[in-house]
Automatic annotation (TrEMBL):
Keywords associated with the record: NADP, Oxidoreductase
Coiled-coil spans in chain: none
Protein name (record): Quinone oxidoreductase family protein
UniProt superkingdom: Bacteria
Biological classification of the source: Bacteria, Pseudomonadati, Pseudomonadota, Betaproteobacteria, Rhodocyclales
Residues annotated as domain Enoyl reductase (ER): 11-322
Length: 324
C-alpha cells in the first residue's frame, strides 16, 4: 500500500493527513513514478491554506524526483527505470508513488542526486525565468533580492552574480546574513533592524536598483517599489506574508514610471520545449559548480505538517526536502 499527504479542508499545517492510497495503472500518456525525494515550497502553504483555492480533498506538492516504475500507452518521453524530476502537473508530489503525465518529467542527470533534483526544479527554474525572461539582468546592474538566504533567493543570488550583477539581499537575522554573504551577496540588509528602502538608496548613491525580486508580498511591496530606479522593474513572485493589497496605479508614475509584474511558473514552461530548455540551463550551472543547491533541512514525508510550520515560521534556510 502506498501513502500520500492529503487534506480535506483548508487551514493550518494540522489539516495535512498521512493517508493510504490505491493507485490504478498509469493511463495513456502517464507514468507510475516512485518518489525518492520531494521538494518543499512556499506555494504549498498557499494551496493548503486556501489562498490558492483547490477542489477538495486534494494532494499537495509541485516538485519531486524519483524513478519511473511503469509507463502507460503512448509514452515516448521516458521509460521504466529512468531517473526523472518535475515541477508542474497535478498536485500530488507529497506521495510515495503517483501517476503523472509524462510530458511534465525531465530526465535527471546521473550526477545530480534525487534530493538535489527535488530541491532545485521549482526554485531553480523559477530563478532562471526571473533572471533571464521576466527581467533579463545585465552585467553591471544592481538588483535587490528579498529572502536572499531562502530557497529561490539563494539561487537568485548565485546566478545573478554569474550574470555580473551587484546583488543587495535582505534577510531576517544575522545567521541568514552570513549565509547570504557566503552565497555572493555584495551587501546584506537585516530588515529586523534596518529600513531596507533607506539602506538601498544609501548603497546605490540615491539611484535605486534596476529590479527587485520580491517573494515576501504584502509586507514589503510598497517599500520595494520605492527602491527602484527610474523605469525599474518590480517583480512580485510570492506572498510569504500575504497577498499584496490593491494600490493606485498612479504610484507607478510617481515612483519613476516603474514597471510591476506578477509572474508565475506555468507561463514560463508552457511548452515542453521551454521546460527542457530551462531545466538544461539549470542543470548546466549546477553540474558546473557555479550554482550550489544546498539542502539545509530534511523531514520525513509523513512529517510534512512540521515542515510547513518551520517554513512559515521563517526558521528554514536554503532548500528543504521531504523524504518518503
Amino acid at each position: 500500500m502506498s501513502h500520500a499527504i492529503r487534506f480535506h479542508r483548508t487551514g493550518g499545517p494540522e489539516v495535512l493527513q498521512w493517508e493510504a492510497v490505491v493507485l490504478p495503472p498509469p493511463a495513456a500518456g502517464e507514468v507510475r513514478l516512485r518518489h525518492h525525494a520531494v521538494g518543499l515550497n512556499f506555494i504549498d502553504t498557499y494551496h493548503r491554506s486556501g489562498l490558492y483555492p483547490l477542489a477538495l480533498p486534494s494532494g499537495l506538492g509541485m516538485e519531486a524526483a524519483g524513478v519511473v516504475e511503469a509507463v502507460g500507452e503512448g509514452v515516448t518521453e521516458v521509460k521504466a527505470g529512468d531517473r526523472v524530476a518535475y515541477t508542474n502537473g497535478p498536485l500530488d508530489a507529497y506521495s510515495e508513488q503517483r501517476n503523472i503525465p509524462a510530458r511534465f518529467l525531465v530526465p535527471l542527470p546521473d550526477d545530480i542526486s534525487f534530493e538535489q533534483g527535488a530541491a532545485m526544479m521549482l526554485q531553480g527554474i523559477t530563478a532562471h525565468y526571473l533572471l533571464h525572461s521576466t527581467y533579463p539582468v545585465k552585467a553591471g546592474e544592481t538588483i535587490l533580492v528579498h529572502a536572499a538566504a531562502g530557497g529561490v533567493g539563494s539561487i537568485l543570488v548565485q546566478w545573478a552574480k554569474l550574470l555580473g550583477a551587484t546583488v543587495i539581499g535582505t534577510v531576517g537575522n544575522d545567521d541568514k546574513a552570513a549565509r547570504a554573504l557566503a552565497l555572493g551577496c555584495d551587501h546584506v540588509i537585516v530588515y529586523a533592524r534596518e529600513r531596507f528602502p533607506e539602506r538601498v538608496r544609501e548603497l546605490t548613491a540615491g539611484r535605486g536598483v534596476a529590479v527587485v525580486y520580491d517573494s515576501v508580498g504584502r509586507d514589503t511591496f510598497l517599500d520595494s517599489v520605492s527602491c527602484l530606479q527610474r523605469r525599474g522593474t518590480m517583480v512580485s513572485y510570492g506572498n510569504a506574508t500575504g497577498p499584496v493589497a490593491p494600490f493606485d496605479c498612479a504610484l507607478l508614475h510617481k515612483s519613476g514610471s516603474v514597471f510591476v509584474t506578477r509572474p508565475g511558473l506555468p507561463d514560463y514552461i508552457a511548452t515542453r520545449e521551454e521546460l527542457l530548455e530551462r531545466a538544461a540551463a539549470l542543470f548546466e550551472v549546477v553540474r558546473g559548480g557555479k550554482v550550489r543547491i544546498e539542502i539545509m533541512q530534511r523531514f520525513a514525508l509523513k512529517d510534512a505538517a512540521q515542515a510547513h510550520r518551520e517554513l512559515e515560521g521563517r526558521r528554514t534556510t536554503g532548500s528543504t526536502v521531504l523524504l518518503p
